[in-house]
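Two proteins, back to back. First:
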Amino acid sequence: MQVVRLGAVVLAASFAFTASAQDASQDLKKAGHETKSAAKDTGHAVSKGTEKAYDKTVDGTKKAYDKTAEGTKKTYDKTAEGTKKAYDKTAEGTKKATNETLKGTKKAYDKTAEGTKKTADAVTGK
């Protein structure tokens, strides 16, 4: 009976050892699968984050472009407006100067004609 008991104990121990060996093997497989799954999840998260960052960069670049174009148009319009005002003032000043020069020339002509007549009268004795 002791041999039977010993055989039963040895048999039970071998089953326990085999079961624990299988559990360790299964644990390693499970750990490997979980590591693989975690690496995939991390890769997907990084990819998604990179895509979001790219999209935000594109949006920011478009906004900056639009603001720059808007600012450039405003600057162009202000410059054109300022140039027109300067042109109008210059044209007005030129016209005024021309009229003043014309008046001065006519006045000088009249004075010269008057002086010439006085000199001619003085020479002829009138």
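And the second protein:
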Amino acid sequence: MNTTKPEPRMVHTVEQPTAVVHEKVPMSALTEFFGRAFGAVMAAAQAQHAQLAGTPFALYRGMPTQTVDVEAGFPVVSNFANTEGVAPGTLPEADAFEAIHFGHSRTDVRAHSRAYEGGRLYSRGHDVGVLPQRP
């Protein structure tokens, strides 16, 4: 079994409609936020009979300090209605960093941090997205 964890890589994303939870979150609370956000989006999508169209993602807005402005959710096939803290959004067409996460959800923040460190080199003030994918 290969235990080498791939480094984040630059990818080009196409614009997609999304369902997201958008918050300003303390860096120390990212793991809890991702679990809560992904669960809320899946529940809201199921309630609206909205079809998920891809893997979960996080979209960071600006550079983090002690807090980070982040959206977390899923691409969806069709229009999504705002409901109970889950809002429609758009994953923009952009160059983004893709990070593959392996293991327990408590280590998600490490993959996101590695990708964000790379984003400092390339983002130059633009949004940096992290798109966790299944291997």
